[in-house]
Amino acid sequence: MEKLYTISILTENKVGLLNRVTIVLTRRKINIESLNTSESEVHGIFRYTLVIKTTEEQVKKVVKQFEKLVEVVRASYYEDDKIIYQEIALYKMPTSLWGNGHNIEQVVRDNHARILSIEPDFIVIEKTGHKKDTQELFDKLEPFGILEFVRSGRVAISKPMKHVSTYLKELEEANINSYKAI
């Protein structure tokens, strides 16, 4: 049965790696639902967070393929109950709505959003939450005339308590042990 999985890939920051990651998914005809890249808490190590919809069997194979890439330190997959995650959405709305009897300010408050910027021609509203939360606000604002909309990829932290430096030490120890075996 297909469902959403969040994949976390810890990697060195090398040119072309994202292309190789997407090739792994393309070969298996798996679409990326969400993608985010950022630095991690360890200097020189970056985190790719991907959301894909597939089977558990397929996600296991994909993660193994990712770990074979030279620059990848560690790849893991998680179901939604094993992570804490958020997305951010920005909505650009016409400034003219705010003085013409529209109750848009109440919509913003009721949805726990905030006004990020007020410009002469537009206002930018920010909403952080799960995709369903940011989509719900979109649906409520759409009748007022959204000028522009953007939603980030998922940002996620796993619930299991294992620090990135622990993975790096395990990798280093495994490499030392494999050299001793030779």
Short description:
The chain has 182 residues and is an alpha+beta fold. It has helices spanning 17-27, 56-68, 104-110, 131-141, 164-181; strands at 3-12, 32-39, 45-54, 72-78, 83-94, 114-118, 122-129, 148-151, 155-158.
**What would CATH call the homologous superfamily of the largest domain?**
ACT domain
Q: What does the main sheet amount to? A: 5 strands, antiparallel
> Structural class, from helix and strand content?
alpha+beta
Tally of DSSP β-strands: 9
Percentage of β-strand residues: 35-45%
Q: Helical segment tally?
A: 5
The 3D shape can be described as elongated
Q: Compute the average pLDDT.
A: 88
Low-confidence stretches: none
Number of domains: 2
Measure the end-to-end span: 43 Å
Summarize the topology.
Layout (H helix, E strand, L loop, with lengths): L2 E10 L4 H11 L4 E8 L5 E10 L1 H13 L3 E7 L4 E12 L9 H7 L3 E5 L3 E8 L1 H11 L6 E4 L3 E4 L5 H18 L1
Antiparallel strand pairs: 1-3, 1-4, 2-3, 5-7, 5-8, 5-9, 6-7
